[in-house]
Amino acid sequence: xxxxxxxxxxxxxxxxxxxxxxxxxxxxxxxxxxxxxxxxxxxxxxxxxxxxxxxxxxxxxxxxxxxxxxxxxxxxxxxxxxxx
Amino acid sequence: xxxxxxxxxxxxxxxxxxxxxxxxxxxxxxxxxxxxxxxxxxxxxxxxxxxxxxxxxxxxxxxxxxxxxxxxxxxxxxxxxxxxxxxxxxxxxxxxxxxxxxxxxxxxxxxxxxxxxxxxxxxxxxxxxxxxxxxxxxxxxxxxxxxxxxxxxxxxxxxxxxxxxxxxxxxxxxxxxxxxxxxxxxxxxxxxxxxxxxxxxxxxxxxxxxxxxxxxxxxxx
Lengths: 84, 221
Known about the structure:
The structure holds 2 protein chains of 2 kinds.
Chain A: E1 2-11, H1 18-29, E2 42-49, H2 53-68, E3 74-83
Antiparallel strand pairs in A: 1-2, 1-3
Chain B: E1 2-7, H1 14-23, E2 27-32, E3 43-46, H2 67-76, E4 81-84, H3 86-93, E5 100-102, E6 110-118, E7 134-141, E8 145-147, H4 150-158, E9 162-167, E10 178-182, E11 188-191, H5 215-220
Parallel strand pairs in B: 1-2, 1-3, 3-4, 4-11
Antiparallel strand pairs in B: 5-8, 6-7, 6-9, 9-10, 10-11
């Protein structure tokens, strides 16, 4: 079966995110008030052939640990695994 | 002394590194990233550039190139391995060096000469420098901010694994002004500045040339 997995990779909270700061600043410049913080990460959509949703989830998690996220600087979350 | 310069798709300082190694008297050869044969090289250089277009993260894809298995074995055998700029990023991604290199704190690509202080000369690549000596070499990177957790940073300081530190201005926001580090065995070195672009007076500085002159050290090793 084919599944679609959505992975979210974010810079770790303890690491300065200058991209997020620039976005927050730009939003303020545009007149959006009350933007206390912004952080910019990355989303990866995977289409996976697997025997079950659980197997697809397991595979996606291993991919995050091995390649999609840097364990030194980033945290990841698997947002959804659903039939494609 | 034979020095292999690895070429990844997107490497762009490979020719400069090869020339600097040859000028230092080494037999300098290219090794394509698909190869798993380092041609018996005594030392290996991962040059600067934008391997795989910096896709995902700088160095993240290159670390899985076939040649990296041979490079890791070369390092595990205690042989000299140097990563310059993108090469440093690849070594961190491959976990041959601790920490990571992330987007410059100022967001802009920084391309200018900087000064770095030699903090430790007990590596094959820094043996010809004096501790405390300041070198002028250019940086050219958008993601050169060295980061690691506090425990790792403290260990790097305690074990004297910080090799180069920025002085007179930190171009990228690197933690503790770190410009280059080594591994515990002292045979793997990574740095963001470009010694190969400072390898003869005509280029504005020859301070980097001695990094490629490692014959005597390797002979002892």
